[in-house]
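Readers of this paper often ask what the protein records in our data store actually look like. Nothing more is needed to write down the fold, since each code stands for a local backbone conformation. Below, we set out a record of this kind in full and without editing:
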Amino acid sequence: MHALAHLLCPNLQEAITKAFSQTSRDGSGLLRTNELQVAMRSLGFDMSKDRASHLVETSQNAREGGAGGINFDQFLELIEAAAIEAAAHKDLSNTFQLFKEEKQLFASSRITLEDLRRVRDQTMPHVTNQQVEDMYRVAKSDNVAGIDIDEFCAVLNKKGYFIPPHDH
């Protein structure tokens, strides 16, 4: 059994086990694409059909010549990754709200380049103006002034942004 299973409270262990066993209907102990989507959704995580299909098609079972499918340990790993991603998104959402509260932009759902620079000055002085401008430029996905929460989260989730430099 996956090491994560021993760290979960009994109720969560039961919910995850139930989600897996109730959706793996053919008795194989593997989740196929639609079953994986249903199991993830039952635990509060969305997964696109393309993502589920890719995971099933590239699973260990498929690599070993089987039909493909996600076993319980792999399912636990997916739940762990989804939970970490959800927590990170919540943290980024809270950070985004700080930008808005600082400037009292309750009517706007966007933050500006100036907002990014101000918070950078207060919290991350190692980040250069060029890095902030690059982040803003990469985040902009439309022609509307400012960046919204989805753009903000997407750019901060990209590797390399706002990571403190290593001490040599």
Remarks:
- The chain has eight helices and no strands.
- The first helix runs from residue 10 to 23.
- The chain has two domains: 3-84, 108-156.
- The helical segments are 10-23, 33-42, 49-57, 60-63, 72-103, 113-123, 129-139, 149-156.
